[in-house]
């Protein structure tokens, strides 16, 4: 039985790798993390975030236009800024309530003071920033479930706007905490998790095609019942890693 499980996992991993684009990355995860201007509150998170960044950053290249949704204080934004370089641009989006409630403004000010290729946008998720050229990459890192938590939010409208703002061939990459299968959006505002199929259904309905469903951030020992901030599971939740592409 163990052999069959190992073979099944190998097939999943092979399929995920095969579906990923062959992108020549000139900036490695390690070199992006070693940038001298990164603040301590970023670097102290590197060990925990490296698996996610190792999956994400190879999708980017110099010159890309990128939207970092729900970017918080810009941990991922700063790394992506290094990868896209002076000819690329990163749009950093947060809702106003996040910036105010979580005191993000100093971190965002620091980010823009250090990186000329970053624009900070404070706006609801469905108000997608209009880039100078269509997005090559859109990233929603562990926050897609949050888009359902504002009673006024329209996630279908958001997904449609993302599709419109992206270039043909561009990638919409989502990582998030998995809820028990079949629970839909039940847990988005309690344990801060979401059902994987609900994410897939909503994004593909907007016109995107699912090209990769990777186990890169899988933690099968997580039974998906605890709040993601619970010390027993924080940083070790079972997470989806989905890549969608605009045809």
From TrEMBL:
Pfam families for the chain: Methyltransf_31 (PF13847)
Keyword terms, alphabetized: Methyltransferase, Signal, Transferase
Signal peptide start-end: 1-24
Domain Methyltransferase: from-to ranges: 61-178
Stretches of the chain forming a coiled coil according to its record: none
GO biological process, one term: methylation
Gene3D superfamilies membership: Vaccinia Virus protein VP39 (3.40.50.150)
Xref: InterPro entries: Methyltranfer_dom, S-AdoMet-dep_MeTrfase_Alr7345, SAM-dependent_MTases_sf
Claim: ATP-binding is one of the keywords in the record: no
MF term (GO), any: methyltransferase activity
Highest taxon of the lineage: Bacteria
Protein name: Methyltransferase domain-containing protein
Species of provenance: Asticcacaulis machinosus
């Amino acid at each position: 039985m163990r052999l069959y499980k190992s073979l099944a996992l190998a097939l999943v991993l092979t399929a995920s790798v095969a579906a990923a684009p062959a992108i020549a990355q000139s900036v490695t995860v390690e070199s992006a993390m070693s940038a001298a201007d990164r603040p301590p509150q970023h670097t102290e998170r590197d060990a925990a975030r490296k698996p996610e960044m190792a999956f994400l950053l190879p999708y980017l290249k110099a010159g890309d236009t990128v939207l970092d949704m729900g970017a918080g204080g810009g941990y991922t934004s700063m790394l992506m800024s290094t990868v896209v370089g002076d000819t690329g641009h990163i749009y950093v989006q947060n809702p106003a309530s996040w910036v105010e409630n979580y005191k993000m403004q100093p971190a965002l000010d620091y980010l823009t003071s250090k990186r000329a290729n970053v624009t900070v946008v404070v706006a609801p998720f469905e108000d997608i920033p209009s880039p100078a050229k269509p997005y090559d990459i859109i990233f929603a890192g562990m926050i897609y479930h949050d888009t359902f938590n504002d009673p006024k939010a329209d996630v279908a409208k958001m997904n449609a706007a993302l599709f419109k703002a992206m270039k043909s061939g561009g990638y919409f990459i989502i990582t998030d905490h998995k809820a028990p299968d079949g629970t839909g959006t039940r847990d988005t505002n309690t344990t801060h998790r979401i059902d994987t199929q609900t994410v897939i259904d909503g994004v593909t309905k907007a016109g995107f095609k699912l090209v990769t469903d990777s186990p890169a951030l899988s933690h099968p020992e997580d039974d998906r019942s605890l709040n993601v901030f619970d010390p027993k599971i924080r940083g070790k939740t079972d997470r989806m890693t989905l890549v969608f592409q605009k045809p």
